[in-house]
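Why does residue order matter? Because the sequence determines the fold. Keep that principle in mind as you read this record.
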Amino acid sequence: MGGVSYGNWFSVKREIFPTSVNFECFKIVEYNIALNETREVKFKVGGKNDDEKRDIKFELNNSNISLSTSSWSAENEWMLKTKITGKKIGDTIITVKVEGKALNTIKVKCINYKDVFSNTEAKRLIDEIDYIKPKADAETAPEYDENYCMQAAERGISELLKNYTDFYSVERGTDKHRNRIGFSSLTAIDRGNKIKANGFVSSQLEFNDYSIDHTKRKSIIDSASYGKVKYDIINFNTDGKNKLFSYFENIISNKIGFHVFYFTVTNGFHTLLLLIDNSNPCDAKYSIYDQHGITSSYGKFGDIAEGFRKQTSWTFANTCLNRFKSGKSTQWDSTKTILWKIQRK
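Structure:
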């Protein structure tokens, strides 16, 4: 604090110190990071900006984590960037000091959640699906033709986990199978339950709060009529949308990182992978993949239930078209969605 004298008057210059330094994302209750994982994190300096730079320093109470940058000269309302690396399992308290005085504390937990994955792990899954896509699009025989959705999903998980024993897996280039896992007479439900029995599932959900527009169902007689109704033949029952969204919201709550689900729509007719990017809870995103790469269902996490409705709708419409072609259009398939949340053992 400084002062300037003007005759009989004494003017005092008041410094407006930061009110706090906290995560940029207000939704973060407890920040978690995995062992040996590194993430860039942003912190916001609170308080009204008075164009004064002050020395800000982060002091750690242990070595469970490390910071790439721990001191800044910054103004109020500025963003501070640093990279956090998990070094040892346990909690770390960061004491924020401004001009040597403690302002507030921030808690970081280094923990190995079995069902939360790093950006590097998630990228392995996406890269595998992207590798498969052109071959699946071209229906290259025999590996990529017919019902390759189950195989593609497991190949993605095998790369995510680097597990080539418990999941269907194929070498790139040679297309040689790494194990004897096959899908003869099996559905995604069979495989999902097997993956669960082997210890790779942390949560399972069966969801069927959908309604069928039977007028539109009966209208499907060819590809053109299928195309007209495929995205709105299925809707949610009352509260169905909120129920599905709440499931995902609760299951990723306070778990920062990537979440992966093996799932099937229309009760085993089609198999897909869901990837939720919760590395920034204030800007969480979701993406759904099948053998043809990322589907039309992706975007903001808040829209995830609608993405599932859309996937279920066009897949159900496809089953209706198949039934019409086989002369069984008086019957219809199940709309049930089943999800298995993937975890490490």
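The longest helix spans residues 304-325.
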